[in-house]
Each structure stands twice: as structure tokens, then as C-alpha cells.
Design brief:
It comes from Cellulosilyticum lentocellum (strain ATCC 49066 / DSM 5427 / NCIMB 11756 / RHM5). With 972 residues, this protein is of the alpha+beta class. It is globular and about 75 Å long.
Length: 972
């Protein structure tokens, strides 16, 4: 683009241009002269283009106004007055992601697509949604997404609303309460003292007038920044934005003002409480938090990312060793870390799973360890390992599941809203070089001394569970609702019932063909007929099967060792699950766990192990695989070979204190996951009812596994010797040359070097083949519930449709897409107030449906039961069906990271599938017809007859429906 600073084009004036080597491209800043909107272009050769639009949105209280506005504006707008426009927009698009998020101080709307026309069509609709929403004409959007009174069957009032129930789910976790209390204490004079997402008890205090005022204040052109990332045609994109939205955007006069908190004069100590049902089953959390400088200091930011790894993330952390392993004050330091989501970053050390009286010792122990590190110096191996970990992450870039352009957008938006240089966060190379130069000159020790030991803007917070607070909050809510009902006249109460009924009826009305015709969309003709075929090579190396994919990996080798785990007898499967957690976490005959951790982080991008059961394609069986996944630069292959040989042959289980710490962490995280991730746990449990793979995984990572490891941890001293022997025995049964296959993703020119290393490594493995065992699992219940400290439910239901004579077909993916965005969205989210509901299909023949943050139970199960009848009666216009087909195809066309490509390669090798089978699914999606819906209706009707379900949620809600369960667990 030939444009000088100050020159204009398509209504945009160029005000800044810089070359940014870190993103491999050019950064430009434009101002749209009429609207005042700033457009930041991050132009490079990445085909995964991103559009992001951000607004500074500062919370004024805890009613969640920013969050509710984010939800509500996506419903409908002036030019797109559809029902759930944002959802309808996804149909006919191959966007790999479309979402909106509320941050502590900003709200962003983003989309990513490999197709420029697709992305810009979405951008056009986004502009209308956020600047011209129908929230001013129709209060239903506020009620639906925020909150409204719901009349229960007994005539009492309750609260309902998507955001309300979402935040109920969020605040079921103690860590969310800790974060909220921490921000209140650290930033008492700034907007950061409020949760922008909203507190459940405060959300009903938000009036519609305040909600609209919030939108009016912040959604102005002068407060909007748009990011365009990737290889798109910038000239065309700017012209398109000018002609399709920005001309009508109100400029406004908002000026971003975000005050900084004045530093404290001394460390603050606070105790806070959070509501629970049973104190004995709940945890205390303790944290030390430090406000660290200014987010504009890139060198400081990178430095604290390295310190976070040293002090909190590494298994070699001196803090972990002292607090958890030696003093046993708690079970984990896994939360906390360096938070840069605010203008004033915060570094937090959080101890989970501790007792209330551990607070004083925690504080003194943390400061003692930090003083020792300053005085004696941080171990050089730990510094080197942490620096190399960051270096690898910066080189790899695309390891996350979100497109990298979205991460860059977040960084740029924060910098702009904080009044800093637009591109400052992207310039990390020089800052990293500086860290490397200073790493052994006491640099990190100086940072600890200045920002942690001698920082008065700090806080020690203890968060304690309280049954009394839980009861008081519930009583207060009931009282408020009773007062609200008592204040209503009979006419007002009747009107409330009528309004809710009208809203529910409107939520079931489908969009018209004319309405949908307003939205941009791609057609099947614009879709490729064939998927891109990866360059695969299959060969045998030292008698072992190897599958290779050639790709541009930036000299990183993605190597997966796939060990057949059938040699482990059934009674030892839980030990295999423990091994998957402990492998690389404990030492070997030659190195202790600290040396192993530092060696891994110095010479690789990470080594991780897992145990998983893979269903075999077109077969009834499954293959249990112990997978060891590695990322390594080809220049480090020599050190990698030595490390892997040591791990495979010499791993021991003698470090008693370390193993106890790891086991305690496993127990803790599993217990917390039933509150923090109930949708995952309910789905995992569901599969045990009808799937052999599910039953297997229950033994190595599910509920059966938890019931094995908890008593093991509680009686650790007496059982350690037997545990140590069992783990060594299981390891020896699995790590054998006869068991291993390899999946490798690597560049063409590095392939031979990698194969040479692998050949050498394989020759060191024991070669004898062991016994392959057959497993038999007994299913006890198929309709089960677990009561946890949640106000809402995760409801999973499903069955094995292959056993009922049905087969998997790609058209089922289209039908799931239709159901998720119509039938389930309308009835579970809009009418029910749940945060979401998804369908999961597998080629093995399994179907599962899961809702989450769901205030209902029986009603949701009834909705699931009605799917078959809905599909049988559904008449879908060809144009609409085509849109669903296109968006479903998009899931298979989406660019993915190298790490995910390497995972797909593992799947090919283990399950005996490949590009041919993916192409078949793609073709079946492309050729979906209305008749496909009728066939699927019978499948979903069969689910009603052979239904299994697992619910994790609120005790009162579950016990009210006790007759529909075979068993209810009041503890996990």
C-alpha cells in the first residue's frame, strides 16, 4: 500500500505505520474521519484473517451492565431485526470463531475466517449490531440476556436471565470469589474494584435505564478501535468498512480515562468469606498479590512471565517445594500468576486447598523463600529453563486454540485504551534479548526484591468458606423476591405472567426467509470440493510403525510416542492413570525431579503424557494408548534423545514427598472440577453408561479413578511402598519397543535428522512383548445425579446409536448444527436461561447432549426428549439448509495450529483413518438433504427410548426430581 502519513483513502487518514518483525508484517493506524473510529491494520501473510472491534467499558458497579450489553446488542439491530441475529449470522459463514467477550475494562467482538468475503460480511453485521442495536426499541433483550422475574409453578418469584445464570455458574467456584475480593482490596478507588461480569446478587439491581445509559456512554465512534489482521486486501477492506457501516456511526466525544490506583503505604491483610452449603467440604484459599508497575513496560512484562514460570508453573519451583511439598500448607499453586488484563498488572501467589490457620505461615514462608532467592541467587538451571520456555512459546506462536490474530488484537486494544503506544506489546524481541543478557547478573533477583519483597502495594487475602453466609444470602434472596411480589398488584402480577408467556412464545418464532436474506452468506458453490490433503508418509523404523506429516513447523518437531497400554491388567488401570500424571514429574536414576523439570524446559517445548482410549474405525474394539507428546527444536535433538532415553528407561518413583504432592493435587483438582467444569465431568460419566472406552477412561481419569486415588492419598504413608512398586511395574509393561508407534509432524528438510534421532532412541527400548489383556466393565447406573455446591446444573444425556442400528454420517453434523442454533438454543438458552447447550457426535456411534449453567433439570431433559419429533416436523427452506451446510463445512476448513495438526496425525495412526475418511465426511455434509433430517429424527427418537443421563448440580433442584434418577450422590 502506497500511502504516506497524513494522507487519506476511503475516508480513512493514515496516522502511523511501522514494520513489526515479530508478526512478520506491517502495522498501520488509521482514523475514520467521519466517525472517529480508529482502525489498526496488522498486515502479514497469515491466511487466517481476523476482525476485532473493541470498546473501553468501565464498570460502575457490580450489576454486570457491560456484560449484559455485550449479550443484548448481539440479538438484533436496525438493519438486521432478526431473532438472535448473532446466531443466525453464523449460518452461511465459515468463520472459525465468532464471539464477544467482556473484560475487566473493555468489551470486544471478534471473528476469524480464512475467507475474506466471509469475514467482511460478518464485520458489516457486527457494526450494525453494536452501534444500532434494537435494545432501545425492545426491552425483551434486557430481560432475556440480563434478568427478569420468573414465576415458578408454586407462584413464587425467582430470577432468570442468561447472564444471571452464567454468573451463578462462575461464582460457584471459590477462586472467582477470591478474584473478586482481591480486586476490591487492591483497587478500591478505580473501576477494577467491580466485577464487570456482574455478581449474581447484584445483577437484579440493574435497571433497564442504566443498561441503556451504559451502551449510550461507551458505544461511540471515538471509543471504538477496529483491528484487521492477516493477508487480506487492506485497501478493499477499508473501502468496505467505510461504505458498509462507519458512515452511520455516531462519533461522540468519549475520552478514555482510566485512573490508576494510588500505591498503598504498606501490605494490606484481609479476610473474606464466600457462601457454601457445607463448610467441611469446602476449601480455604490464601493469596499474596502485588501490583506490578505499568502494563506499557514490555521488558517488565516479559520478565514477570519468566518469573511466573520460575515461581509458580515449574515443577522445580522453590515456592512449590516449600509451601506444598515440605510444609504441606496446601495442595496447589496452580492458580494465580501474572495478570496483564488490567492497566496495572498484578502478580499473585495463590495457595489452594489449605486450612484457615495456614494464613500466617503462608505469608512468612513465601517471603522467606523469596528473600533466600534474592540472597543466594535463583538457581541458574531454573532461570535458563524458564527463559527457554518463553523463547519456545514466542517462536511457536500458534499453539493456542484461538487464532493468533485474536491474541494480538487483545494486546493492541489494551495498549490503546491504556494510552500507550499502539504496537508496543508486539515488540518483544529486543526485550527478550535484554532478559537473556541480564539473566545471570542478578536481574530476576532484583525484580523479586523490588516488586515482591519491598512493594507496599500488596495484599495478603484469606478466603474462608461460610455456611452462615450461604444461608444468609439465600434467605436474603428469598426475602427480596417475596417483597417484590408483595409490592405487585394483582394486575401487575398477571401482566408479569403474560409478558413472560409472550416472551417465551416469541423465542420460538423462527426467522423468516426474508429476514435471513438480509444477512451475508457464502454458498456451496464457493466451497472447495476437496479438502487439502496433508503430505503423509508411512514407514517402519526399527520394526515400529511411524506416520509422518511434512509441514512448515519453524524447525519444531512434534513427536508423539504412542504406546499400546493393553499390557496393563485391569486391576492396575488406576495406576496407569497416576502414571500419566507423574511421568516427567518425578526423577530418574540419574536426575531428581528438579533436574528433570529444568532439563525438559531448557531443551524442549514441553513433554506431556496422557492415557486415552481410541475407538477403532469400522471396528467394535478400542485401543488404550499411553501417549507421550513432545515438542522440540531440531537443533536440540541430541539433548532430547538423551532426555527421553533417561525418562523411558530410568524413571523411578522414590521421591515420596513429590509423589504425595502430585497425588494431593490430582485429588484436589478432580474434586474442584465437579464445580468448576461440571459439564465435562457429567459428559465423562455419561459415556461410562454405554461405551467401553468411557468405562476404561473412568478407571484412569474419571470417577472410579478418583475413588481409587483419594483413599490412597489419605493413607499415603502406609501405601507408598506398594504404590511405588506398582507404578514402576506399570511403566515397564507399557514402555516397550513392541508397544510403540510414532506420529511426527516436521518440516521436509529436518525429517531425516529427526528420524535418525528416533531410530537411535527406539533401539534403547526393551524389545520383548508382554501380554495383552481383555477388560470387562460393569455398568451400575444409567440415570445418575451428583449434588454439588452449584445453583445451576450441567445436564448430559445420550446413547450409543450404533447399537440401535444407526450409522454415523456427516449429515448428522449439519443436523446437530441446526438443532444447537434453533431448537436447543430457543428452549434451553432463551426460554430456560441456561448459558448454552451442545450436541456431541462421534464417528464411533455415540450421541450426547449437554447443557451448562442451566437453572432447570426436568424441563431440559424433556426438551432433549422432544428432538426427534421436532426434526420429524421440521420443514427447512433449501436456502437455509445450504447456510447450515456451509457453516458446518467451515469446521473442517478451519486452519489449525501445528500442535493440533500433530494431534490429528495421532488419531489417523491409532484409529486407522486418514484424509480419505475426512473427505467422505466432508462430502456427506455437502450432500445433506431435507430427507437427512427425517432419517435423523428416528435416531433422536431412539435416544428417547434408550436414554441415559447424568446431572451435576444443585442439591435442592436434584432432590425435587429424585424420582427420575436411579441414584443420587450427595458427595462425589
Amino acid at each position: 500500500m502506497q500511502l504516506k502519513i497524513g494522507e487519506s483513502m476511503s475516508g480513512f487518514r493514515l496516522i502511523e505505520e511501522q514494520t513489526i518483525s515479530e508478526i512478520g508484517g506491517i502495522g498501520r493506524v488509521f482514523e475514520h474521519e467521519k466517525s472517529g473510529v480508529r482502525v489498526v491494520s496488522l498486515k502479514n501473510e497469515d491466511p487466517h484473517q481476523v476482525f476485532t472491534m473493541g470498546f473501553q467499558t468501565l464498570p460502575m458497579d457490580e450489576t454486570g451492565a457491560a456484560h449484559i450489553v455485550e449479550h443484548a446488542v448481539c440479538c438484533a439491530s436496525k438493519h438486521y431485526p432478526l431473532k438472535e441475529t448473532f446466531v443466525a449470522l453464523g449460518q452461511g459463514s465459515i468463520c472459525t470463531t465468532m464471539n464477544a467477550c467482556t473484560y475487566p475494562d473493555m468489551t470486544i467482538y471478534y471473528a476469524a475466517s480464512p475467507h475474506e468475503e466471509d469475514l467482511m460480511g460478518v464485520a458489516k453485521v457486527y457494526l450494525d449490531l453494536v452501534f444500532h442495536p434494537l435494545i432501545y426499541e425492545k426491552s425483551d433483550y434486557f430481560k432475556q440476556e440480563g434478568w427478569h422475574y420468573h414465576v415458578e409453578e408454586d407462584g413464587n418469584l425467582s430470577y432468570s436471565g442468561v447472564v444471571y445464570h452464567e454468573m451463578e455458574g462462575e461464582y460457584a467456584e471459590a477462586i472467582t470469589h477470591l478474584e473478586n475480593q482481591k480486586q476490591k482490596a487492591l483497587f478500591p478507588d478505580t473501576p477494577y474494584r467491580y466485577d464487570s461480569g456482574g455478581l449474581p446478587e447484584a445483577i437484579p439491581n440493574l435497571t433497564e435505564e442504566a443498561f441503556l445509559a451504559f451502551h449510550q456512554k461507551y458505544y461511540q465512534g471515538s471509543n471504538c478501535i477496529i483491528i484487521l489482521y492477516g493477508d487480506g486486501n487492506l485497501k478493499d477492506q477499508l473501502h468496505y468498512l467505510n461504505e458498509n457501516g462507519l458512515q452511520q456511526v455516531p462519533k461522540g466525544d468519549y475520552k478514555a480515562i482510566l485512573p490508576c490506583q494510588e500505591p498503598f503505604k504498606a501490605l494490606q491483610r484481609r479476610t473474606a468469606y464466600y457462601p457454601v452449603e457445607v463448610e467441611e467440604e469446602a476449601e480455604t484459599l490464601i493469596c499474596l498479590s502485588f501490583v506490578i508497575g505499568d502494563s506499557s513496560d514490555q521488558a517488565l512484562r516479559l520478565s514477570f512471565e519468566v518469573l511466573e514460570h520460575m515461581l509458580l508453573r515449574s515443577a522445580a519451583s522453590p515456592l512449590l517445594k516449600t509451601l506444598v511439598i515440605e510444609e504441606e500448607l496446601g495442595v496447589s499453586l496452580s492458580d494465580g500468576g501474572y495478570d496483564t488484563s488490567r492497566k496495572q498488572p498484578v502478580f499473585t501467589i495463590t495457595l489452594k486447598g489449605c486450612e484457615e490457620e495456614a494464613g500466617k505461615q503462608f505469608e512468612s514462608s513465601v517471603f522467606r523463600v523469596l528473600r533466600t532467592l534474592v540472597k543466594e541467587g535463583i538457581p541458574k538451571d531454573l532461570i535458563e529453563a524458564s527463559l527457554q520456555t518463553l523463547a519456545f512459546e514466542l517462536k511457536e506462536v500458534d499453539a493456542s486454540y484461538e487464532p493468533i490474530g485474536i491474541q494480538y488484537s487483545e494486546m493492541v486494544l489494551s495498549s490503546c485504551f491504556y494510552g500507550q503506544g499502539t504496537f508496543e506489546p508486539l515488540y518483544y524481541e529486543k526485550a527478550f534479548e535484554k532478559l537473556n543478557e541480564l539473566r545471570h547478573e542478578g536481574y530476576f533477583e532484583t525484580l523479586i526484591e523490588k516488586y515482591l519483597l519491598n512493594n507496599p502495594h500488596s495484599l495478603c487475602m484469606t478466603l474462608i468458606p461460610s455456611e452462615a453466609l450461604g444461608r444468609a444470602n439465600e434467605e436474603q434472596k428469598i426475602k427480596i423476591l417475596e417483597v417484590a411480589k408483595a409490592a405487585m398488584t394483582k394486575a401487575q402480577f398477571r401482566k408479569l405472567i403474560q409478558d413472560n408467556k409472550r416472551l417465551k412464545n416469541e423465542q420460538l418464532i423462527e426467522n423468516t426467509k426474508e429476514g435471513l436474506g438480509l444477512l451475508p452468506h457464502l454458498t456451496k458453490r464457493q466451497m472447495p470440493k476437496l479438502l487439502k490433503v496433508p503430505k503423509l508418509e508411512q514407514l517402519t523404523l526399527e520394526g515400529c510403525e511411524v506416520l509422518i506429516e511434512e509441514a512448515d513447523t519453524k524447525d519444531i518437531a512434534y513427536i508423539h510416542f504412542l504406546f499400546n497400554a493393553r499390557g496393563v491388567p485391569q486391576e492396575d488401570l488406576p495406576y496407569l492413570g497416576i502414571l500419566a500424571h507423574l511421568f516427567t514429574y518425578v526423577g530418574t536414576e540419574t536426575k531428581d525431579y528438579v533436574a528433570i523439570e529444568n532439563t525438559i524446559n531448557t531443551h524442549t517445548g514441553g513433554i506431556h503424557s496422557a492415557i486415552h482410549a481410541y475407538h477403532l474405525f469400522n471396528e467394535d474394539g478400542y485401543s488404550p494408548i499411553f501417549k507421550v507428546s513432545c515438542k522440540v527444536l531440531t537443533e536440540a535433538l541430541g539433548a532430547f534423545e538423551a532426555l527421553m532415553t533417561d525418562l523411558f528407561l530410568n524413571t523411578t518413583f522414590k521421591e515420596k514427598a513429590k509423589i504425595k504432592e502430585a497425588l494431593g493435587h490430582m485429588v484436589y483438582e478432580m474434586e474442584r472440577s465437579y464445580i468448576g467444569a461440571p459439564e465435562y465431568r457429567s459428559m465423562q460419566r455419561l459415556y461410562t453408561y454405554f461405551s467401553e472406552e468411557g468405562s476404561y477412561e473412568d478407571q484412569v481419569s474419571g470417577l472410579a479413578f478418583y475413588h481409587f486415588i483419594k483413599p490412597l492419598y489419605e493413607h499415603f504413608e502406609e501405601q507408598f511402598e506398594q504404590l511405588s512398586k506398582a507404578l514402576k511395574s506399570v511403566l515397564e509393561k507399557v514402555i516397550r519397543k513392541s508397544n510403540v508407534r510414532l506420529a511426527i509432524t516436521i518440516g521436509k528438510h529436518q525429517k531425516q535428522k529427526v528420524l535418525y534421532t528416533i531410530r537411535s532412541l527406539i533401539t534403547h527400548l526393551p524389545g520383548e512383548k508382554g501380554v495383552d489383556y481383555t477388560y470387562t466393565f460393569k455398568v451400575q447406573e444409567t440415570k445418575e445425579a451428583f449434588c454439588v455446591g452449584q445453583e445451576v446444573q450441567a445436564i448430559a444425556a445420550g446413547f450409543d446409536f450404533k447399537k440401535q442400528g444407526y450409522r454415523y454420517d456427516g449429515s448428522l453434523e449439519v443436523i446437530s448444527n441446526i438443532l444447537e442454533n434453533t431448537y436447543l438454543w430457543d428452549r434451553v438458552r432463551l426460554q430456560g436461561g441456561a448459558y448454552g447447550c451442545e450436541i456431541f457426535l462421534s464417528e464411533e456411534g455415540y450421541l450426547a447432549i449437554s447443557s451448562y449453567c442451566d437453572p432447570h433439570l426436568k424441563k431440559t431433559l424433556e426438551v432433549y426428549q422432544g428432538i426427534g419429533m421436532y426434526l420429524e416436523q421440521l420443514e427447512i427452506e433449501p436456502d437455509l439448509l445450504e447456510r447450515y451446510i456451509v457453516s458446518t463445512l467451515g469446521t473442517m476448513l478451519a486452519p489449525i495450529s501445528m500442535e493440533r495438526r500433530s494431534e490429528r496425525l495421532c488419531h489417523y495412526l491409532i484409529t486407522h483413518t486418514g484424509p480419505k475418511e475426512r473427505q467422505q465426511i466432508y462430502d456427506e455434509i455437502l450432500n445433506t438433504t431435507p430427507e437427512s433430517l427425517q432419517k435423523a429424527s428416528q435416531l433422536f427418537k431412539a435416544m428417547s427410548s434408550h436414554n441415559h443421563y447424568c446431572v451435576i448440580g444443585n442439591k435442592e433442584t436434584i432432590t425435587k426430581c429424585k424420582n427420575i434418577f436411579e441414584v443420587i450422590h450427595f458427595t462425589i
